[in-house]
Amino acid sequence: MRPTFRFALPLALCLSPLTASALNIQPGVWEISSQDMQVGGQAMPGMQEMLAQMQNLPPEQRQMMAEQGLSLGAGGVQMCLTAEQIKAQEIPLHDDSDCSNEIVERSATLWKFRFNCPDAQGEGETRFVSDKEFTTQVKGTYNGQPSSMETRARWVGSDCGALGRN
After folding, report:
1. What 3-state DSSP class applies to 134?
2. d(Cα 116, Cα 10) in Å, to the nearest integer?
3. Local structure of residue 45 (DSSP, 8 states)
4. Which end of the chain lies in a sparser environment, N or C, as judged by fewer CB atoms within 10 Å?
5. Looking at residues 26-53, what average pLDDT do you find?
């Protein structure tokens, strides 16, 4: 797996779903996309290129994604959030690293947070556009290099179908 994918996707999935519980967001399928990713001052590939890379993952890695409740959508990675998970604020993290997150400020439309992962540390903020969309901006370090990225999460629909969690 290329380092870009290993950095961008887990970090985007780690941060965006965690902060999603600030509003009464809609349960169902959410699609998370990232843009404007930089590591060490260098731009990383865009979401479409990452999705193309992910289409070529070996079957066993695609199966691991499916077992974690993830699939590839047209514009990002899709995951299911159930009403129970949202109500309990038990939003699953799909990154298998040991990341910790701390909300340092919260309002109805903005959450600010800090995170610490084995290879990445930093801070960010999530802005809630509606119950069907939120955006996250992150700044920090990845493997000791300055990094930043933006993610957008949008509600796709209420029927999780095959994305239901095990």
Report:
1. strand
2. 13
3. P
4. C
5. 83
Task: Write out pLDDT tens, residues 104-131.
Answer: 888 778 888 898 888 889 999 988 889 9
**The residue type at 41:** G
Nearest partner of 113 among 144, 84, 134, judged by Cα: 134
Query: Is residue 50 within 8 Å of 8, Cβ to Cβ?
Result: yes
- Do residues 15 and 115 touch, judged by C-beta distance below 8 A? yes
Distance between CA atoms of 59 and 48, rounded to whole angstroms?
Answer: 20
> Where does the chain show beta strands of DSSP type E?
28-39, 42-43, 70-72, 77-81, 100-106, 110-116, 120-130, 133-142, 145-157
CA dihedral for 108, 101, 64, 54, sign (positive or negative)? positive
pLDDT band at 3 (very low <50, low <70, confident <90, very high): very low
Residues 76, 37: Cα–Cα separation, whole Å: 14
What are the pLDDT digits (tens) for 145-158? Answer: 999 999 899 999 99
87, amino acid identity: K
Structure tokens of 105? 């400020």
Euclidean distance between CA atoms 39 and 41, whole angstroms:
5
